[in-house]
């Protein structure tokens, strides 16, 4: 866990704290330039350990979703200490950034558009384990052409890209729309030069965030039954379908125990955000009992009136698509609004003064991480490591 | 308007299109790696010309708000072709990035926290025209200490930082809370070693987005009257108060015609977003009649069912704090939802196929720009320039 100050976005050989990086290793937290992403390393490590144990108990593989944190350092820790078999991400450019930084097994758990991107994916498959999803024969044709072209260019006849069928199991986003369509697509992949049919992607994003355990269970039971039916139909058509992958932090215990899923794609478990903390199990706990290990550290820049403070973390430092961030550790304080560069805080007990730091728990960690260039890892009040957000901005 | 491929975030001497940059100069738009920020250069230039003419007609200086675009290239065009006297921004790190890239006159139109940041600001004042706001004597003391310390270190006794009083004129965010407080703070600045009292900042952010012209007028009349009263009281206390700065794209015509404001801080006028397009003048037009010159270019990655398409621009490519993006130029199509890496589109006329590009008008341009590393400037269907988002992620 050492600082990596030489990753490719900082050309300067000596990054300048406060300009290029938010802190130096060894600094007390009070010296971190805010707003900054803070990782409580003790809580983060406990989260990795908890998920490793739970995936093992469920008997499923963990494929950690790196779209959440976009960090090669964190991905590698998830694959070592955290027991993950590999990672997934959503974009070819993310996969490129992670592979360049040494992550060897990546599933692009999404569809991709265009010949140029397919070619980039084929090149990635030359260098590491890569898989991608498809939900339409047009994508399969594009991927196949890209791999066969690379075979011809490089003379490597063995080059093969793993392609999974993505089915719509309830999310109404991407995914095949019927069992018959899934079977036909699996056959198309199986018959396409350069491609290998590698299983079923069945991810129900919306179900992750159904707070009520009974409602979530109902939604997932339908989804899991449809997934099992699709898998069985593909097998009945004569294809192996050994890998069924999906699930996330809010639902992994249910899909993981179903006997249908072989792999779970949780991401937020490592950090936890305010929205996942609202999701409840039948026992009244949060799924997996993960801790908040991730904060946006803000500073008070103005105390304009009694009971009010203004922080320096706005929309460009913390995502609000899943609600306002939650002020942590300041009794009575709450975020009441966020604009581009400011967050308004109510502070009825008058605890906040000019320059004071406040930890904010983001409503949604994924788009919050993508706003920053660095994670500041802290333990015992000091900065222990700086990790680049390796794939920050890699959205294409 | 040439590509600047060597700015400090790309260490590679030959940035790779699709990985480091979204396109090459000369490419047809169809080859741009999506999602990407697109500037329609013709419309953008017309917006600059329109604002130059309107500010001149109002008899006020234009200080373009660079927090919107965070681009040194665009800031410089606003100061040359666009007639701006300088720019403003919200963060010391933004000012550093813009000054490093050659922008010579910058107002940090915000309060700042802490001694470290004050020292950085003092260093910036050594190298160019810099001003900052304050709303509390504590900030004034911190700024004064920083400048006097720099004077001692460098032997440059003339080093002076311009500080404006920020008053709350209705926004309930930062700003002094009464005329008496403003006067006292102006005197404190005037008496602080190393600082020069440089005028009044009076910005009413919320008023920019009041769609109804009569309601907006009422809100601004109150705000302008309070601003005039504050200015007059500062003058009555024996201080010059020649600069009154504020206003934005939704309201500049009103503050600009008030006789109170000397400088307007519009930013979004250069690009226009979907939310500003909802603001109406009494004549039923939008303030300033600016055109949409700015888009997030997305591609269709999935056509999962009749009348539906899924694009590759999600929350990490387009901000949704001011509503969903608006699909542009595809008859009948509309964005119905946005998740981390996807946007769902309804497409009742079935116009969208796999790989097709769609232009999206973001609800809010500022936080959208901050998500990307590059602007792709297009004219006549081809990429004419690539501009780095110079201060992308400079939130501290």
Task: Give a description of the structure.
2 copies of one chain form a homodimer. With 396 residues, the first copy, chain A, is an alpha/beta fold. Chain A is 29% helix and 22% strand. Chain A has helices at 41-58, 72-79, 92-100, 115-127, 137-154, 179-191, 213-236, 252-256, 365-369, and strands at 36-40, 61-65, 86-89, 105-108, 129-134, 161-166, 195-201, 244-246, 263-264, 294-305, 308-311, 326-328, 334-338, 343-346, 357-361, 374-379, 382-388. In chain A, strands 1, 10, 11, 12, 13, 14, 15, 16 and 17 form a 9-stranded mixed sheet that branches. Chain A has an 8-stranded parallel β-barrel with strand order 2-3-4-5-6-7-8-9, surrounded by 6 helices. In chain A, strand 10 and strand 11 (308-311) form a beta hairpin. In chain A, helix 3 runs parallel beside helix 4, helix 4 (115-127) crosses helix 5 (137-154) and helix 6 (179-191) crosses helix 7 (213-236). At the A-B interface, helix 4 and strand 10 of A face helix 4 and strand 10 of B.
